[in-house]
């Protein structure tokens, strides 16, 4: 795993947006896997600024989702589909046609998971997958003890993750769904380049275990050590527990 320490979240966002810009110059219709949550927001801001300034042409980029809540009504503002459309697809001037994600409101959730896994392969695979990391070391919503070979499937969120995410639901944990669809760790590892951004003291322990600990299902992000091209970008605070 390549570790890059940057002064702050903004610098991390700019560094990663520049890497996405280089990818798009070389492959204009690259499939970009995006994460939600707070960590990647500086990436989307920097990438949008790059596109608006004319430095990057993202008009043929394709965007795909990492995970999704199960059971929110379609169009719910906090469904990850809505979030990605609002924070990534629209600011980049793209349309829903360039976007793919799992259907969290499907009646047949298992079928929707398998269909999404298949669709990613048929789209040629993910060129660059952006990741955040949970305080418990999760990537996507692969919580501790997820199989390192897992495929896209339904998972139950831990209490900790529901507490962490209540801020998006009026700080009311009862509104946070219990279940999610997530790309599996095996699915995530198929992307050609993995780029994880972690910022803030709260991520320091998870980052240290991811990069310096053993590869273990207890720390799902440690699976990045199995990938030939994984980059972890951290600010000083998130790097503070690295040896
Ligand atoms: C979201 C996702 C999660 C988050 C993680 C960190 O699509 O996959 O793994 O990346 O929960 O969330 P933040 O960045 O909000 O701390």
UniProtKB/TrEMBL annotation:
Listed Pfam families: Glucosamine_iso
Keyword hit for Plastid: no
EC number(s) recorded for this UniProt protein: 3.5.99.6
Active site annotation, chain numbering: 67, 136, 138, 143
Keywords, sorted A to Z: Allosteric enzyme, Carbohydrate metabolism, Hydrolase
Regulation: Allosterically activated by N-acetylglucosamine 6-phosphate (GlcNAc6P).
Catalysed reactions, as listed in the record: alpha-D-glucosamine 6-phosphate + H2O = beta-D-fructose 6-phosphate + NH4(+)
Pathway this chain belongs to: Amino-sugar metabolism; N-acetylneuraminate degradation; D-fructose 6-phosphate from N-acetylneuraminate: step 5/5
Keyword Manganese in record: no
Organism superkingdom: Bacteria
Record domain Glucosamine/galactosamine-6-phosphate isomerase: where: 10-226
Stored Gene3D superfamilies: 3.40.50.1360
InterPro entries to which the protein is assigned, alphabetical: Glc/Gal-6P_isomerase, Glucosamine6P_isomerase, Glucosamine6P_isomerase_CS, NagB/RpiA_transferase-like
Site entry (Part of the allosteric site), positions: 146, 153, 155-156
UniProt record similarity statement: Belongs to the glucosamine/galactosamine-6-phosphate isomerase family. NagB subfamily.
Role this protein plays: Catalyzes the reversible isomerization-deamination of glucosamine 6-phosphate (GlcN6P) to form fructose 6-phosphate (Fru6P) and ammonium ion.
Name of the protein in question: Glucosamine-6-phosphate deaminase
